[in-house]
Amino acid sequence: MSASPPSAEPAAQPFDRLRYAGVFLLLFLFGAETFLVSPLLPTIADSIRVSEAAAASSVTAYVLVYAVAAPFLGLLSDRFGRRRTLVAGTLLFVLSNAAAALSTGLTPLVLSRAVAGLAAAAAGPAIWAHIAETAPDAVRGRALGLGMALFSAGQVVGVPLGGFLAGLAGWRSAFWALAVGTAAAVPLLLKQVPAGGSAAPADGRGSAVRAVLAGWADPALRRALLVNTVFHAANLGAYTFLGAVLVQRFDLSVEALGLVGVLVGAGSVVGSLLGGRLGDRARAAGRDGVPLLPLWGLLLAAGIGLAVGGPGIVLALLGVTVWFLASGGFVTDQQTLAGTVAPELRATSSAWLTSTMYAGTGVGAWAVGAFADVAVGTAVVGIGLALVAAVGARVLRAR
């Protein structure tokens, strides 16, 4: 890979943020969707006369369908173009949220959430691929970082927004708000995403399954996906128990834990923006395409260590912030890598990043939960796997 001269500054190529207004709006809404349902579960369960555990299956349906379907739908984007897949997924997202708002029982609610997961799995990888292939090389990381920051901001806003709307006009209003907001993005997408995109014709890889697995045949992508799995086993697997750990250590109230969520979001936003900017500068200086991945692994280990064992609540909360700063920076660098290593597999690779993230989260949460003391489990699994990810990222960089 030819290196740019050190004098080439990333800012030499301006980044037109308004050009991506449609996809950025979608990323914010997809982020809000992630945690929007959580505060609504008691109200939803009471409204449709089921237990909260049963209502929570609507969350599982969304995540499970996304994780399984994303690589296959990413292939559709790589084969038939970004615009078709993106617009189809967006329209399906509108309809699925409207269906959720109209649901009167558990079955239609779960089905509507599964369809929403399918819609996001179609649109999400196409968004990341579109940004990666249309943003100028010198600011590609910055563009992806801003998209990730908006996604993270949506996650932070999702919980209070869901609670506010439910209190104002009932739980159905939250889904109507998502449907309306997503519909507003459609005209922007039609204007800003070029027809045809970068569709790649079928290239003789064989069946659809073989084509979906093609990313794993690329050595650099395969190593990146393995590192991604381990990193998120530490990151989100440990995060599953963060609330329990902080309550155990400091006896925090539910309201205080909500403020911790703000730190999680703030760290993710800052990390995403910082990761994109620093990555662009490193690549402009002629260094490799994944210059900071080992650093994010080390920062993750440090952040988890402070959150779980730091003396006093101030250092623990500082650890939470560092933890998710590392998370945001890592995800941005990984999306940049997926968008540049194998251009013909951009959306498929991006989809695999999400699927391996969910897989890692499940493995990490299971491993932490196997410990009798969740604080000990969070420390051992979180710090240990974060260091393994840092070493793996160093190997990835070396090769």
UniProtKB/TrEMBL annotation:
It holds the Pfam family MFS_1. Keywords: Cell membrane, Membrane, Transmembrane, Transmembrane helix. Gene3D superfamilies: MFS general substrate transporter like domains (1.20.1250.20). Its main location: membrane. It is a multi-pass membrane protein. The chain crosses the membrane at residues 20-41, 53-73, 85-104, 110-131, 143-167, 230-250, 256-274, 295-326, 363-396. Coiled coil: none annotated. This is Major facilitator superfamily (MFS) profile domain-containing protein. It comes from Kitasatospora arboriphila.
